Each structure stands twice: as C-alpha cells, then as structure tokens.
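User: Teach me something about this protein's shape.
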Amino acid sequence: MTQNTVAAPDAPVLDREETISRDELEALQLSRLQHTVAYAYDRVPLYKRKFDDAGIHPSDLRELSDLGKFPFTTKEDLRQEYPFGMFAVPQNEVARVHASSGTTGRPTVVGYTKNDLANWAGLVARSLRASGVRPGMKVHNAYGYGLFTGGLGAHAGAEALGCTVIPMSGGQTERQIQLIQDFKPDAILATPTYLLTIADAMAHMGVDPASTSLKYAVLGAEPWTEEMRHELETTMNIKACDIYGLSEVMGPGVAGEAVETQDGCHIWEDHFRPEIIDAFNPVVGTDAVLPDGEPGELVFTSLTKEALPIIRYRTKDLTRLLPGTARPAHRRMGRITGRSDDMIILRGVNLFPSQIEEIALRIPELSPHFQLELTRPEGKRMDSMTVRIERRETVTVEQSATAARALQEQIKIHVGSSCTVDVVEPGSLERSNGKLRRVYDLRPKR
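Assistant: First, the predicted structure itself:
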C-alpha cells in the first residue's frame, strides 16, 4: 500500500450485509441462488435448453457446491440471443438497456428492471464508500456515458451515496483539467490509464498534479498493477482504489476495494456468487471449481437480478479468491492478471500486458506509457515482440539505452521470453481516452 498525505476518511455506516457472518452470508446465498436458478429456468428459454441438455434441474441445487453441476454461460450465448432473448421479464418491465461495443462481433445486450437499477446504484454506492468517498463529496465522473455501463452506473451510485456528481464523461482532457481546477472535486472516477493521461496533461500545462483538490480515485474497467497504483498515488497525492464489474453481470460495483487495506476488491456476495475454474480446461462438474487461493478464470452467478439473471457466467478474467479483510464475510479478488482472451503466446510462453507494466514501472527511467507490437518477420517461423515505451522527461538518451537493456533482461528473467525494447520520446505514444489499447498484433492472419 502506498503511503501519502491523504487523511483517512471517517468510518462509514455500513450496510447490514457488509457486517454479517460468513455463515449468515452463505445461508442468504443459498436461498437466493435456489430462487435465481429456478427463476432463470422458468423464464429464459436458453437456460431451460442448457439445463435440460445437461440433465440438471433447479431442484438439484440443494447446497452451494451443487452450483458446479450447472452449465456455464458465455458471451457467445448472449450474442446468439441478441438482442433481448436473455431477458426474463416482459419489455414493459425493462427500465433500461445497456450494451457492449460489439467491436468483435454482435454486442451483448443487458437489461435492468427498476429494482435492478436500485440494487446496482446501492452496490456502486457501497463500493465508493469502501474506497473512501463520503456523502457530500464532489465526485468528478470521467467514465464514458451511453451504452457502456461505466458512466451511468458510477453516476447513479455516487448520487445514491449522497454525493454531488460532475458528469464529465470521457475525453476532452483539457476540459477535464479545467473543471477539476474550477469545481474542486474530492474524488474522481475513471480508468487508471485515463487518469494517468490527465496527470500527464496537467504536468504539460504547468499544473502540478499533486496540487489539486482530489483526494480519492476509484478506478476500473481495465486491469492495473500495484506499480500503477504507486505511480498515480505518488504523482497526484491521492488514494487510488479498484472497482470491478462487467456489464453481463451488472456493471461497475460487483466488487470494490477498501481504502483502509487496499488489498483487492471485496466481492459483494449477497448479490453475486463467485467461482474460480481452470482457465484453460473447464469441464462441467464440481471438479471444475478450484479452491480459494488457486488462480483461474472468474465465474459469476447473479443472486438478485430480475431482468437478466446470469448463471455461471465465464468472465475470462484471471484472478483468485482470497479471504475477506475489511469486510470479513465477503471474499476478495486478487488483482486481475489479464483476460484469457488477451493472453499473448510468444514462442510458447504465455504473457499478459500487465506483466510488462509491472516490470517496467520498477525501472525508474521508464514511464507507464507503453505498447506491445507483435510481428512475424518475413521468412521466419517464430513471432517477435517489440516493447515500445516512453522514457521519463528527465532521462537522457544514454540513460534510456541502459533502461532498455534492463527491461529486456527483466522480461527474459520474469516472463521467460526474449523481446526487443524501443525506448521512445515522452509524449510520442497514444494516450488513453478511456480504455487503452496496449497490444498491436501485426502478425499475418492464419
């Protein structure tokens, strides 16, 4: 945990479900899980087909471990049911729809009843409160508004907490900085790479990023490392906490990190049942579920959703489940190390962009701004990776060469693969306006 001069917030008043025992929580989970599985079976044709094909019935769920007998739900299932085939309520009960970008195929569409929206706002409020935000604070929301769940989800949660929301949305970085200076918000909501973009732009404008009114940042929508947390907290003199969610499960607020411990997001298990499965060899059955502490793919089942109940949704996020700390009954997620579909296989070695970020930020001469370029040189059978990374402003070209060699060596040691490192001028790489693209795959399509 990074130490800085931001004072700890006053102790908040917690929801009852944040303070119950693990036994009470699991009893609540089982009751809600049995209802949700039967509800989905009766109301969503996809689930009736999947359960029947697997030879499983909602009445077979007698204890929490029985959930592992039920089939998974995937993004492809939601795409096949596009647009509204996954909804469990009639259209006149759907108060709002959100959707993914659809850049890699049909978008996934999710719906919410009024009760779903109230629960969602309450869980985002719980997450923000855990991360240090308090009623009466001004909150600058730099998540994108629209079909993406981040902007409106975070907005509603901050309002439910009793905050004053500044609905800036993403982009227009100079305008963001102007409003931060003029409106003096206490907290900011953004992706970590976009907050880094804001901090860099402040410095280039002659504004000290550590001099603003901001005290707390609640950051999500992309994986980030402890090294990135240290970078942001040191640069901006803030406390930075993680928030987790995905639209298919709800949106932001599925889990939130406590500012007093900063040791991973507590999953709000009164509304979601998490599992970890083997990321690369999932098999339907109880043996597919890994014990707490083992790394694998995160799977979620909703416990209270009405419009779109989701059963054993494979998130493709790679993490592990850990005991609760600040909220003892609610298990924590380890940091997301990557997504199974974002994994780079380079000459037989598996690696993720977050690994490069973690290594690079341990080298003082290098900045957090980097890209990975994958190529296959003509006439070669083996792929190559080039890490393009900016040097820091005060670093000379000669120092850059030493830093490049150090990064190359550390990647070889810790990842196990050789690469080329190209240290480039400050400000020369693309900046984030929301989610940042790290990987450029230029290899010939097979």
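Now, about its shape. The CA atoms of residues 159 and 279 lie 37 Å apart. The chain has two domains: 10-337, 343-441. If you'd like, I can walk through any region in more detail.
User: That's plenty for now, thanks!
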